[in-house]
């Protein structure tokens, strides 16, 4: 039974809300009878267990737990998923974002870190987050997970009749913005762009395009990918890949680590992101960005191989390093099978869902890869989410 708003070991009164699944049910806490020593006042008063469940703001479902216990719980989920689905026994601590990269976020409270946040709009124009597990808009007096400059300008007391949503965006370069989403489609070329800085490097992207949410996330993942790639296995001339590449963040991480001669192709399905990636990666003559779904890209490579690709081409993939950073659902069986056929030397897998990662690790282990190392980062404090970066190498 998954009991929302409780902590393992507590005694609570809970209401069962979902009995549709064979293997688990869901419930929500109504009252805490014996609290855990790790319970604290919720960081977001409107999400507190003292409110009726349907009036609790969603998006901060761990906010009632001390932050170090939150990390332990996430580490347990990762360990359990890797054991059950990946077939690997591995203890991976979940690390807080390095304070030097967290730039003002509170590591003790897990607040002040979100550079992106969506407020939803109710029928009467009021804005707020959705209540947990529903589409009811909950009015709030603050947005504590947002970076301070967004928290200051969040129009939580205003009304936006007719709008679909209100997006808050705080890029690392320039001013924070409030964007009223109306649902009208803007011509591609007219979409506003923003700039993000990671170390000394700048990335351009659409204002509503994908970028890592935590203020320190892009730098944390850049560093993790750079440290996890095994330099002895890295060949700058191989057909290196950055799959699900967005605007080129992780291809640039590889480029910055291994120098200007690096060959790497960033593969991304969103055409606008790829256009930006092309420009963001201009420092490397051997870097390119292509707009295509990863499964299609790998299918085409497989078809070429079937048509008698040159041995030299096949070797360029076998010598390659592949970074992949798929959406929450993970890469999945088809992509993993195709990747395993190309047999690159090493994979660095960036995952925002430990269960999808564990499933894909299991599939890769059945196809000649071993899991060498996993690092996990608390890029979403006060939520159940955790980011993990794994290195797998081909067993020769
Ligand atoms: C988690 S983001 C990672 C982006 C980038 N690596 C970064 O860190 O900024 C996943 C990206 O994959 C893209 N994407 C989703 N499904 C895809 C697919 N089937 N093929 C290619 N790209 C896809 C999304 O548009 C998004 O940019």
UniProtKB/TrEMBL annotation:
<keyword id="KW-0949">S-adenosyl-L-methionine</keyword>
<feature type="binding site">
    <location>
        <position position="212"/>
    </location>
    <ligand>
        <name>S-adenosyl-L-methionine</name>
    </ligand>
</feature>
<feature type="active site" description="Nucleophile">
    <location>
        <position position="352"/>
    </location>
</feature>
<feature type="binding site">
    <location>
        <position position="268"/>
    </location>
    <ligand>
        <name>S-adenosyl-L-methionine</name>
    </ligand>
</feature>
<comment type="similarity">
    <text>Belongs to the class I-like SAM-binding methyltransferase superfamily. RNA M5U methyltransferase family.</text>
</comment>
<dbReference type="InterPro" id="IPR029063">
    <property type="entry name" value="SAM-dependent_MTases_sf"/>
</dbReference>
<feature type="binding site">
    <location>
        <position position="244"/>
    </location>
    <ligand>
        <name>S-adenosyl-L-methionine</name>
    </ligand>
</feature>
<dbReference type="InterPro" id="IPR012340">
    <property type="entry name" value="NA-bd_OB-fold"/>
</dbReference>
<dbReference type="GO" id="GO:0070041">
    <property type="term" value="F:rRNA (uridine-C5-)-methyltransferase activity"/>
</dbReference>
<protein>
    <submittedName>
        <fullName>SAM-dependent methyltransferase</fullName>
    </submittedName>
</protein>
<keyword id="KW-0489">Methyltransferase</keyword>
<keyword id="KW-0808">Transferase</keyword>
<dbReference type="InterPro" id="IPR010280">
    <property type="entry name" value="U5_MeTrfase_fam"/>
</dbReference>
<feature type="binding site">
    <location>
        <position position="325"/>
    </location>
    <ligand>
        <name>S-adenosyl-L-methionine</name>
    </ligand>
</feature>
<dbReference type="Pfam" id="PF05958">
    <property type="entry name" value="tRNA_U5-meth_tr"/>
</dbReference>
<dbReference type="GO" id="GO:0070475">
    <property type="term" value="P:rRNA base methylation"/>
</dbReference>
């Amino acid at each position: 039974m998954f009991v929302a708003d409780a902590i393992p070991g507590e005694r609570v009164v809970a209401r069962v809300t979902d009995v549709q699944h064979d293997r688990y049910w869901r419930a929500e806490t109504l009252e805490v009878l014996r609290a855990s020593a790790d319970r604290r006042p919720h960081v977001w008063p409107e999400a507190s267990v003292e409110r009726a469940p349907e009036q609790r703001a969603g998006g901060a479902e761990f906010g009632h737990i001390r932050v170090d216990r939150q990390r332990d719980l996430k580490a347990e989920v990762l360990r359990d998923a890797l054991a059950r689905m990946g077939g690997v026994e591995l203890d991976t601590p979940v690390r807080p974002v390095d304070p030097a990269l967290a730039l003002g976020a509170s590591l003790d409270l897990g607040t002040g870190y979100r550079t992106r946040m969506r407020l939803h709009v109710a029928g009467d124009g009021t804005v707020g987050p959705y209540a947990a597990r529903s589409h009811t808009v909950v009015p709030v007096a603050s947005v504590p997970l947002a970076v301070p400059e967004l928290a200051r300008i969040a129009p939580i007391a205003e009304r936006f009749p007719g709008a679909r949503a209100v997006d808050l965006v705080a890029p690392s370069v320039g001013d924070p913005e409030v964007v009223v989403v109306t649902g009208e489609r803007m011509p591609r070329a007219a979409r506003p762009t923003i700039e993000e800085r990671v170390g000394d490097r700048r990335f351009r992207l659409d204002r509503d395009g994908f970028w890592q949410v935590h203020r320190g996330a892009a730098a944390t993942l850049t560093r993790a990918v750079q440290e996890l790639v095994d330099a002895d296995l890295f060949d700058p001339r191989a057909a290196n890949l950055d799959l699900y590449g967005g605007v080129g963040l992780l291809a640039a991480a590889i480029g910055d680590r291994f120098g200007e001669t690096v060959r790497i192709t960033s593969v991304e399905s969103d055409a606008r992101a790829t256009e930006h990636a092309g420009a963001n990666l201009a420092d490397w003559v051997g870097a390119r960005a292509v707009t295509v779904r990863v499964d299609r890209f790998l299918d085409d490579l497989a078809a070429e191989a079937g048509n008698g690709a040159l041995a030299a081409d096949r070797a360029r993939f076998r010598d390659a390093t592949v970074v992949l950073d798929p959406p929450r659902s993970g890469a999945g069986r088809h992509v993993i099978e195709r990747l395993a056929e190309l047999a690159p030397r090493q994979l660095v897998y960036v995952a925002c869902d430990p269960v999808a990662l564990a499933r894909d690790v299991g599939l890769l282990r059945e196809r000649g890869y071993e899991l060498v190392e996993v690092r996990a980062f608390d890029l979403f404090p006060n939520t159940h989410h955790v980011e993990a970066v794994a290195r797998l190498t081909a067993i020769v």
